[in-house]
């Protein structure tokens, strides 16, 4: 009788492990979270690029760069050359 109970308990544990593996995609969708991570990374890069342009424009207004083109790279180059 004990051998049968032991085998039954082991079989139930193995079945629970298999059920957990099968239900993994129902509980967690990894692709959704990876997609959100990638989207948030690109959003962060976009926000940082806009912030960088604002900083360059601020430097242009504050230190009065001689560029009339308004190109942020030229403004930054002039600022670095003057200082």
Please describe what this structure looks like:
The chain is an all-alpha fold and 83 residues long. It contains four helices and no strands. The chain has helices spanning 2-22, 24-27, 30-63, 72-82. Helix 3 (30-63) crosses helix 4. The longest helix is centred in the middle third of the chain and has 34 residues, at 30-63.
Summary, kept brief:
This protein is mainly alpha-helical and 83 residues long. It is built from 4 helices and no strands.
| Residue share in helix | over 70%
Total count of helical runs of at least 4 residues: 4
Mean pLDDT: 79
The string of secondary-structure elements, in order, is: HHHH
Radius of gyration (Å):
30 Å
- Uncertain spans, ≥5 residues at pLDDT below 50? none
Main sheet makeup: none
Pairing-aware structural class of the strands and helices?
mainly alpha
End-to-end separation in angstroms reads 89 Å
**Quick one: how many beta strands?**
0
From the spread of the alpha carbons, the general shape counts as rod-shaped
Strand content: under 5%
Write the layout of secondary structure elements.
Elements (H helix, E strand, L loop, with lengths): L1 H21 L1 H4 L2 H34 L8 H11 L1
């Amino acid at each position: 009788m004990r051998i049968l109970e032991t085998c039954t308990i082991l079989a139930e544990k193995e079945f629970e492990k298999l059920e957990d593996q099968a239900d993994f995609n129902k509980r967690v969708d990894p692709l959704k979270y990876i997609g959100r991570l990638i989207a948030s990374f690109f959003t962060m890069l976009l926000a940082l690029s806009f912030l960088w342009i604002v900083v360059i424009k601020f430097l242009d207004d504050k230190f009065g760069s001689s560029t009339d083109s308004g190109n942020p790279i030229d403004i930054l180059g002039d600022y670095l050359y003057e200082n």
